[in-house]
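User: C-alpha cells for this one?
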Amino acid sequence: MPSVSIVVPWVVWSTLLAMILLVLPAAYAETTPKRGSPCSMSYPSDATIQWECRTLRIGESLESLFGEQWVTVARFNRIDRRHVHAGVSIKVPKQIEDVEYFSPLPLLYFAAEQERRFILINLSEQFLGAYEYGILRFAVPIASGNGHDETPRGEFRLTVAHRAHQSCRYTVEGTDRPYPMNYALRFHVNRDGVSYWIHGRDLPGYPSSHGCIGLYDEPMQKEQYGIPTNPELNDAKRLFEWVLGGEVEDDRLIALTNGPRVHILGKAPSQR
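Assistant:
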C-alpha cells in the first residue's frame, strides 16, 4: 500500500508553535538570561532586594504582568517599555513592595548640603539623584556610556540647557533622522570638543549611550517608534524643569550661570 505524506503549511506550524510557547509553564521561561537583558546586569544594590529572573513570553508585557506596579518594576530594571518584549529577561522582585520607592542612592548627601541643587550620578547603580541642600528629592534610572564610549567621571557643572536638542552624530534607528536629545543639559565638553549631556533617550536595561546620560522620554519614543502608545514616563522633562525652576517653552539654547554641580562616580557594570 503506497505511503501518503502530508504537507503541513508553514502558517499552521507557526500557529502551533506560538500556542505551545503561550502555554509553557513559567519555569520553562526562566532560563539563562539573554545577553543585553536586565538580568545580565549586576548592581551593588541587587544584594538588598530578593528577586528572580523571568524571561518574557509572547504576549507578555510589564502592564499585563504587574498591573499598576509596572512603573516600579521598569525603574528597578532600568528599562523602558519599548525594550520589554518576548525573550527579554527581567528581574522580578519577590515582594513588589520592596521596590515601590526603590532608590540605591543615599537619602542624605552631605557633600551637597550647601548646594541649592545638586546632581549625583552613580554609574555602578545606573541611577541619578536630584538633591536640594543634601536631601534627595527624586531618583531616576539612567543609561550611561556603553563601555566603548564611556561616560566621564568626576566633578562637573551644568552650563547649557536645550529643550529640543538633536544629535549631530547619531540617527534614529533605521532612519536618517537626527536622534532627539530632548530636555538636554550639558555637563562637560572634552578636549576634542565633544559635548556630554543629560537628556531623554531609550533605556534598554543596560549601559547603552555614547557617553551621555540618558533618562526616560516615552513621548519621544512614541513619536519616533510608535511605542509606547500611552507615554507616561518622562524623567528627562522632570529633571530639566527642576534645574530651570519650572516649565520652559523656549527651544533656544539657554546658558546656565552657575548651574547645578554634577558629581559622577562609580563604573558602569558589564554584562554577566
